[in-house]
Structures are given as structure tokens and as C-alpha cells.
Specification:
Layout: H1 5-14, H2 18-36, H3 57-72, E1 77-81, H4 87-95, E2 100-104, H5 108-118, E3 125-128, H6 131-136, E4 143-145
């Protein structure tokens, strides 16, 4: 049986090497971009078929569904938990330019990759590595979303 990428993530988690694995994944995204000019800014599976025109159109299609929901609810402040390299945030911000987006990811390499791809030109996107920092800034949200979370943010019994 051929191993899948999620098998490697499970093994890395069991060996307490998850941070190391994601360091190489996101660093690889940046190196591929530098060497081949290909931007990998999403790492979810995506869906077929799609009407989008983009290199990562299948992955972005799911974010388009979120855009429709956010637009219908007039959401102005949106938090994405597990924002990764930021491709989804950028896609949603391009579709909803009046909304402010906040990305939260515990992987510093993911946030570094997001900044590498998109720079500081996006005024409506703020990135955080810790929920405590979001709380300290006093941010509040109309919508909270997540595309791929896995068990990166476990909920303890008794938490609401």
C-alpha cells in the first residue's frame, strides 16, 4: 500500500516531530516558488469541477463557498483558524475587499510563507501565531472559519 501524506503527518505527530515536518513543508513552498516560479499557497485537497481560473483553482473552490456565505451574512471581520500559507485568506480578501481577514496558525513557518508570498501590501489581512495575541489586540469577529484543522487545535473537555 502506498503511503499518503497524512500518514507522514501522523507519524511526525506520534514522534513529536510535527513542527519539524511543517518547517520543511512550508520552506519547500518558498523554495519551489523561487526556483520554478510556482506559488503553492494552499494545501487542502480541493474539488472538481470548478469555474475558477487559477493554478490552485480546485483548492480555492472551497474558499469561494465560504465567500458566498460571508457575503450573504455581511461579515466584516473574519478569522480563519489554521490559515497555513495564506492562499485562502488572499483569495477571500480579493473577493471581499471591504472585509478584514485575520489568519491564525500555530506554525510560524506557515505565517512566514504567507508573508513571503503576499508581503505587506494586503492591509485587510492580519496574521497571528497565538490566540492570546488576538485577544490582547481586542479583536472581535463576525465569522470564524477553518478549512483544514485536523487536531491542531484540540478542545479540552469542558471548553465551549
Amino acid at each position: 500500500m502506498k503511503p499518503k501524506i497524512h500518514d507522514f503527518v501522523k507519524i511526525a505527530k506520534s514522534l513529536k516531530l510535527e513542527a519539524w515536518l511543517y518547517f520543511f513543508i512550508y520552506r519547500g513552498f518558498r523554495l519551489i516558488s523561487k526556483k520554478y516560479g510556482v506559488r503553492i499557497s494552499t494545501n487542502n485537497y480541493g474539488y472538481y469541477p470548478t469555474q475558477l481560473e487559477a493554478d490552485d483553482k480546485y483548492q480555492l473552490q472551497l474558499y469561494d463557498e465560504y465567500v458566498n456565505l460571508l457575503h450573504s451574512e455581511n461579515s466584516e471581520q473574519v478569522l480563519e483558524i489554521g490559515s497555513g500559507a495564506g492562499g485562502g485568506l488572499m483569495h477571500m480578501q480579493s473577493r471581499l475587499p471591504k472585509s478584514n481577514f485575520t489568519g491564525l496558525d500555530r506554525c510560524k513557518e506557515a505565517l512566514k510563507t504567507c508573508k513571503y508570498f503576499f508581503g505587506e501590501q494586503q492591509n485587510n489581512i492580519k496574521l497571528y501565531n497565538s490566540i492570546q495575541d488576538i485577544y490582547a489586540d481586542g479583536k472581535k469577529f463576525n465569522a470564524v472559519m477553518s478549512v483544514v484543522l485536523d487536531d491542531n487545535y484540540p478542545v479540552r473537555r469542558g471548553d465551549n
